[in-house]
Specification:
alpha+beta; ADP-ribosylation fold; 2 domains; four-stranded mixed β-sheet; three-stranded antiparallel β-sheet
Length: 155
Protein backbone atom coordinates (compact mmCIF):
# COMPACT_ATOMS: atom_id res chain seq x y z
CA UNK A 1 0.00 0.00 0.00
CA UNK A 2 1.10 3.54 -0.73
CA UNK A 3 -0.31 5.13 2.43
CA UNK A 4 -1.26 8.37 0.78
CA UNK A 5 -1.05 11.43 3.03
CA UNK A 6 -2.32 14.07 0.63
CA UNK A 7 -4.84 14.27 -2.15
CA UNK A 8 -2.04 15.19 -4.58
CA UNK A 9 -0.02 12.07 -3.66
CA UNK A 10 -3.08 9.93 -4.29
CA UNK A 11 -3.92 11.63 -7.59
CA UNK A 12 -0.32 11.30 -8.82
CA UNK A 13 -0.18 7.62 -7.87
CA UNK A 14 -3.54 6.82 -9.47
CA UNK A 15 -2.71 8.77 -12.64
CA UNK A 16 0.31 6.49 -13.19
CA UNK A 17 -1.91 3.41 -13.29
CA UNK A 18 -4.14 2.07 -16.07
CA UNK A 19 -7.57 3.70 -15.71
CA UNK A 20 -9.41 0.42 -15.20
CA UNK A 21 -7.19 -0.43 -12.18
CA UNK A 22 -7.56 2.87 -10.31
CA UNK A 23 -10.82 2.08 -8.52
CA UNK A 24 -9.45 -1.20 -7.15
CA UNK A 25 -6.32 0.57 -5.90
CA UNK A 26 -8.45 3.24 -4.22
CA UNK A 27 -10.64 0.67 -2.46
CA UNK A 28 -7.61 -1.34 -1.30
CA UNK A 29 -5.90 1.82 -0.03
CA UNK A 30 -9.04 2.86 1.78
CA UNK A 31 -9.26 -0.55 3.46
CA UNK A 32 -5.61 -0.39 4.56
CA UNK A 33 -5.47 3.25 5.64
CA UNK A 34 -9.05 4.41 6.10
CA UNK A 35 -8.13 7.57 7.97
CA UNK A 36 -5.05 8.72 6.09
CA UNK A 37 -7.13 11.09 3.92
CA UNK A 38 -10.22 13.09 4.84
CA UNK A 39 -13.57 11.91 3.47
CA UNK A 40 -13.79 14.85 1.05
CA UNK A 41 -10.49 13.79 -0.57
CA UNK A 42 -11.59 10.16 -0.84
CA UNK A 43 -14.85 11.40 -2.39
CA UNK A 44 -12.84 13.38 -4.98
CA UNK A 45 -10.72 10.31 -5.74
CA UNK A 46 -13.81 8.16 -6.12
CA UNK A 47 -15.36 10.55 -8.64
CA UNK A 48 -12.04 10.41 -10.55
CA UNK A 49 -11.76 6.60 -10.53
CA UNK A 50 -15.38 5.46 -10.89
CA UNK A 51 -16.05 6.13 -14.61
CA UNK A 52 -13.13 3.98 -15.80
CA UNK A 53 -13.40 1.35 -13.06
CA UNK A 54 -17.14 0.75 -12.80
CA UNK A 55 -17.18 -2.05 -15.38
CA UNK A 56 -14.09 -3.86 -14.14
CA UNK A 57 -14.77 -3.80 -10.39
CA UNK A 58 -16.92 -6.28 -8.45
CA UNK A 59 -20.11 -4.38 -7.68
CA UNK A 60 -20.87 -6.86 -4.88
CA UNK A 61 -17.78 -5.72 -2.96
CA UNK A 62 -18.55 -5.10 0.71
CA UNK A 63 -15.34 -3.04 0.89
CA UNK A 64 -16.69 -0.74 -1.83
CA UNK A 65 -19.99 -0.40 0.03
CA UNK A 66 -18.20 0.37 3.33
CA UNK A 67 -16.16 3.07 1.62
CA UNK A 68 -19.27 4.56 -0.01
CA UNK A 69 -21.05 4.70 3.34
CA UNK A 70 -18.10 6.69 4.73
CA UNK A 71 -17.87 9.21 1.87
CA UNK A 72 -21.55 9.44 0.85
CA UNK A 73 -23.11 11.13 -0.85
CA UNK A 74 -20.84 10.99 -3.89
CA UNK A 75 -21.85 12.98 -6.96
CA UNK A 76 -20.10 13.88 -10.18
CA UNK A 77 -22.60 16.71 -10.74
CA UNK A 78 -24.41 18.61 -7.98
CA UNK A 79 -27.78 16.92 -8.21
CA UNK A 80 -29.98 16.04 -5.28
CA UNK A 81 -32.52 13.26 -5.06
CA UNK A 82 -35.51 13.60 -2.74
CA UNK A 83 -38.24 11.34 -1.42
CA UNK A 84 -38.34 7.74 -2.54
CA UNK A 85 -36.79 6.80 -5.86
CA UNK A 86 -37.39 3.82 -8.11
CA UNK A 87 -34.21 2.08 -9.19
CA UNK A 88 -33.60 -0.50 -11.92
CA UNK A 89 -30.90 -3.09 -12.48
CA UNK A 90 -30.16 -5.48 -15.33
CA UNK A 91 -27.92 -8.17 -13.87
CA UNK A 92 -27.79 -11.74 -12.67
CA UNK A 93 -29.00 -10.65 -9.22
CA UNK A 94 -30.26 -7.64 -7.27
CA UNK A 95 -27.42 -7.62 -4.74
CA UNK A 96 -24.96 -5.26 -6.42
CA UNK A 97 -24.22 -1.60 -5.82
CA UNK A 98 -24.87 -0.37 -9.40
CA UNK A 99 -28.44 0.60 -10.28
CA UNK A 100 -29.97 3.16 -12.60
CA UNK A 101 -32.83 5.62 -12.42
CA UNK A 102 -33.29 5.17 -16.18
CA UNK A 103 -35.80 2.36 -16.74
CA UNK A 104 -35.28 2.38 -20.53
CA UNK A 105 -31.53 1.90 -20.09
CA UNK A 106 -32.10 -1.03 -17.73
CA UNK A 107 -34.60 -2.63 -20.12
CA UNK A 108 -32.13 -2.29 -23.01
CA UNK A 109 -29.39 -3.92 -20.92
CA UNK A 110 -31.76 -6.74 -19.95
CA UNK A 111 -32.29 -7.57 -23.62
CA UNK A 112 -28.68 -8.81 -23.55
CA UNK A 113 -29.81 -11.75 -21.42
CA UNK A 114 -29.68 -10.19 -17.94
CA UNK A 115 -32.55 -10.27 -15.47
CA UNK A 116 -34.34 -6.97 -14.89
CA UNK A 117 -35.00 -5.86 -11.31
CA UNK A 118 -36.86 -2.88 -9.91
CA UNK A 119 -36.90 -1.60 -6.36
CA UNK A 120 -37.33 1.50 -4.29
CA UNK A 121 -34.99 3.28 -1.93
CA UNK A 122 -35.18 6.43 0.17
CA UNK A 123 -33.21 9.15 -1.61
CA UNK A 124 -31.19 9.87 1.52
CA UNK A 125 -29.91 6.24 1.42
CA UNK A 126 -28.42 6.63 -2.09
CA UNK A 127 -24.64 6.50 -1.68
CA UNK A 128 -23.69 7.88 -5.08
CA UNK A 129 -25.32 9.50 -8.10
CA UNK A 130 -23.52 9.85 -11.44
CA UNK A 131 -25.07 11.79 -14.32
CA UNK A 132 -22.13 13.63 -15.90
CA UNK A 133 -21.54 11.05 -18.63
CA UNK A 134 -25.20 10.92 -19.67
CA UNK A 135 -26.09 8.00 -17.42
CA UNK A 136 -28.37 8.28 -14.45
CA UNK A 137 -26.54 5.78 -12.29
CA UNK A 138 -27.03 5.41 -8.56
CA UNK A 139 -24.84 3.48 -6.16
CA UNK A 140 -26.64 1.91 -3.25
CA UNK A 141 -26.21 -0.61 -0.49
CA UNK A 142 -28.44 -3.48 -1.65
CA UNK A 143 -29.51 -3.96 1.97
CA UNK A 144 -31.28 -0.57 1.78
CA UNK A 145 -33.51 -1.43 -1.19
CA UNK A 146 -37.13 -2.17 -0.42
CA UNK A 147 -39.76 -3.97 -2.44
CA UNK A 148 -37.39 -5.49 -4.99
CA UNK A 149 -39.18 -7.27 -7.78
CA UNK A 150 -38.14 -9.20 -10.84
CA UNK A 151 -39.57 -7.66 -14.01
CA UNK A 152 -40.54 -9.87 -16.94
CA UNK A 153 -37.97 -9.79 -19.72
CA UNK A 154 -38.57 -7.14 -22.36
CA UNK A 155 -39.59 -8.44 -25.74
Amino acid sequence: MRHWHTLQEAMDDLAERPPEERLGVLVREYEAEAESLPGEDVRTLFVYTWPDGRDSFDDHSRELIRMLHWIAPVRDVETYLVGTVTVHRAAADHLGVRWTLDEAEAKAAAKGGETLFRGTIAANRVLGHFTGDGRNEVLIDPDDIVSVERIPSPV
